[in-house]
């Protein structure tokens, strides 16, 4: 199972959602691999290191200089979550690949093929752009989920472009399904959040019932390189992340596995 987390708008907690849901899914007994497709390398910083570049980053897999198996980092900051990290050089490679005649949006899918059966779920964190890398992610995915910042009226600007992009991806990849929009930084007491929640249901065919609340715990976790579940398992935001992860599992057909089944 391959899941993309995608939105071409920045500041919607895309990386936060990807990393925290990955932790929650690992706690459900699933074997999880996260692939950092964003040249900003925020996932890599959170799961591996903000100072060091992975020895075998994703760009070396995509340019054919190494195998995908060699790029997998098994020891990350989150138990049960493996990583294929990247660096800023991924942006240069994207420009080179996109300028190449007959550039293929199936490149990532081909490169990931050897590890797709090794993991229960592979989560792709995409760049905030409707780009060649995002197209490759959707072409490789079974489902795509879109985070939306609930506290901003601007969060739905460009939604038509994103929906159209996903529709085009479905033509190239018929197995791709829209899993749903996920509201982040949501506070149901605020009118703007309620309005965004209502409007989102008009743009997207599904909006998840579970939402990620507006809280400083997420920022605290990023400062100390911890997920919200690592910080405090019984907090409101931790329960919310577990709810989102389990709703995603229900939508995609993923099932929990006993820990001793690994």
From TrEMBL:
InterPro entries: AAA_dom, DNA_Partitioning_ATPase, P-loop_NTPase. Residues 2-176 form the AAA domain. Gene3D superfamilies: P-loop containing nucleotide triphosphate hydrolases. CDD domains: ParAB_family. This is Chromosome partitioning protein. It comes from Propionivibrio dicarboxylicus.
């Amino acid at each position: 199972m391959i899941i993309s987390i995608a939105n071409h708008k920045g500041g919607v907690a895309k990386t936060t959602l990807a990393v925290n849901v990955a932790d929650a899914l690992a706690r459900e007994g699933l074997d999880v691999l996260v692939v950092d497709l964003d040249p900003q390398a925020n996932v890599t910083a959170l799961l591996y290191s903000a100072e060091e570049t992975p020895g075998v980053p994703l760009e070396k897999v995509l340019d054919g200089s190494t195998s995908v198996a060699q790029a997998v980092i098994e020891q990350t900051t989150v138990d049960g979550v493996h990583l294929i990290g990247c660096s800023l050089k991924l942006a240069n490679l994207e420009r080179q690949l996109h300028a190449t005649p007959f550039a293929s949006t199936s490149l990532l899918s081909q490169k990931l093929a050897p590890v797709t059966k090794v993991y229960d779920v592979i989560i792709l964190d995409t760049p905030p752009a409707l780009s060649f890398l995002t197209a490759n992610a959707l072409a490789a995915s079974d489902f795509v989920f879109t985070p939306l910042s609930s506290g901003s009226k601007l969060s739905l600007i460009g939604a038509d472009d994103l929906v159209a992009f996903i529709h085009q991806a479905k033509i190239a990849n018929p197995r791709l399904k829209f899993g749903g929009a996920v509201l982040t930084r949501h506070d149901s007491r605020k009118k703007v959040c309620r309005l965004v929640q209502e409007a989102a249901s008009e743009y997207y065919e599904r909006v998840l019932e579970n939402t990620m609340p507006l809280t400083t715990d997420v920022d605290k976790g990023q400062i100390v390189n911890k997920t919200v579940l690592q910080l405090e398992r019984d907090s409101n935001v931790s329960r919310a992340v577990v709810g989102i992860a389990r709703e995603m599992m229900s939508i995609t057909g993923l099932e929990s596995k006993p820990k001793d089944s690994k």
